[in-house]
Amino acid sequence: MKPDLNGTIYNLKFSKIVALLCALGFLAYANAIFHPFVHDDIVFIRDNPHIRDWGDIVSIFTRPWASGYDLTILNSYYRPLLEVLYKVQYFFFGINTSAYHLFNIVIHIVNSVLVYGLVILLADKKTLALCVALLFLLHPVQTEAVSYIAGISDLFFSLFCFSSFLLYILAHKRYEGKKAIGVSILSSVLYTLGLLSKEGAVLLLLVLIFYEFYFLRGSKEAKLAKYARLSAIFIITIGYFLYRKLILGGTVLDLGAAGQEFVLRIAAIPAKILAYLKIIIFPVGLHFYRCTDILAPFIVPSIILAAVVFAVILAVIFMDGDQRRWAIFGLGWFILTLMPVHAVPLTVEYSSIMSSEHFLYFPFFGFLIFSLAVLMHYGKRILKEKAAAAGQFLCILVIFVLTAVTIKQNTYWQSEIALFTRALQFEPKLGRVHILLARAYYLNGQVQDAVVEYQKALEIMQGYLKKVNAQEPRKFYLQFVKEIHSDLAHCHEAQKDLIGAIAEYKQALSIDPSDSLVHNNIGAAYFHLKDIHHAMEHFNQALAVNGTDVMAMNNLALCYIGKEDFDRAQYWLKRAIETDPRFQPARQNLEKLINSGKLR
């Protein structure tokens, strides 16, 4: 039976639903609006060298992601529409963080409205639709995607995928002839936009196949209609993969592991799934940089997950036909859309792989349909005539609690110190989070706290070096150790301890003797200690490593000025200007030298 669309979506009642979702959405996330940029927000927006340049708008679609990150994984990203969005946002918002946060909240609310509309179209169950939309909107597991400005990638691709799926259903349920074709084309366009926003959108194809062949059974003619409807989406997906292959030289899926490591990652899947189920059902301990240790014992999680799967099968078997179908649909959505998390596990460091909460944003819709269908079915069986009243009370109570937890969870995004302190409560062994917290402390003027965190990070990274023998992992962790020593040197400089700073810089230099910047920093420390001889020695070494290092040329000039060899100082300043005419320190120092009248 077709849903009564005019009685649900297009009338005043629907407008009241939208108003309710807007009011509760802003209530839950209002305290996140005035938070600053944190972590990736700084890289993607504030310090992104590409975001102000509209000259590359065409090339965005013909090259990989260009965020300014050095991480290898980003080289395989292709998200041109997200790059365009960042440019548009920056054009209108600049660095007004409140506008970015407000944008995220609005998109999240729109997605909850789409979720409501989808359930109405799929099941024509207003109660189920409203409960799914409210829980999708207010559940605190969504905060990582909504309160985090960089979480827009999940919000944005989900917006296109939900819209595409909704129009896909409308095309064959509501319209016929040319209108159906037009709506189908629009659905395909939205799917394409989702693919260009984030790779995870590709899973919508699997959802559509599952929907078509599980729910829409029928005659041979009906099957041909299914193939026709799916053909456009399938062709777009194939074209997307081929184009990615052309642009990136690779595919969406890259396991990034082989042999024993691959086996360990597969074995860790039960632990990851159980962790996700736990934070969905009991949303406590939510935090950034959530990880799964692939070296942790996997037998117990596997047994527990097997028991959960068995319980789910039993619950579904004893449900009525219609409710069983929706439970299976929700379960299928959840499993299919969570696949990329297991197919492409992102290694954070050593044996820790990313299990981020924002990975749940799109799959969460399916989990809600499944769980609510099961609860409503067995609630009616057990409570009978009291089921409706009990359900309403439980829904109000759950919404109240979840909203309160979401408001609280938002507070952890109010600063990098709060964010990374929270993460380390649950991930104390992650060296890079200690580094991130240390840098946050340093920028906040809490230098001694920064030193403590850097030393913890150094101990962790040096521990990894003792465990790995392969050249590439050793290079990876040595780079971290080098950066920690350089950052510790900055801390010593802030504490006016130049001797300590030099010692740390030399530790960094022992790892990479060809780093001209470290040579410059050591030379500068010696210069301030009035040890001109050693200062010049390191400035010359910087130039030996990098013959175009204008900073080293300028610093050498300052040393010669200190030695009252003004002609040599003039030589190095002019050479620095010739090398880089935009380097202002050398130009300013040359003007001062000329105006001093000390040149012959």
Written description of the protein model:
- There is one protein chain.
- This protein has 600 residues and is an all-alpha fold.
- The protein contains 27 helices and 3 strands.
- Strands 1-3-2 form a 3-stranded antiparallel beta sheet, with no helix packed on it.
- α19 (431-443) packs parallel to α21 and α25 packs antiparallel against α26 (566-579).
- The protein is elongated, with a radius of gyration of 29 Å.
- The termini are far apart.
Give a nutshell description of this structure.
The protein has helices spanning 12-29, 40-46, 80-93, 97-123, 126-138, 143-146, 152-173, 177-195, 204-215, 220-248, 260-267, 269-281, 299-317, 321-337, 339-343, 364-383, 387-410, 416-426, 431-443, 447-467, 471-494, 498-511, 516-528, 532-545, 550-562, 566-579, 584-596; strands at 291-293, 347-349, 352-354.
Distinctive features:
single chain; 3-stranded antiparallel β-sheet; disordered N terminus; mainly alpha
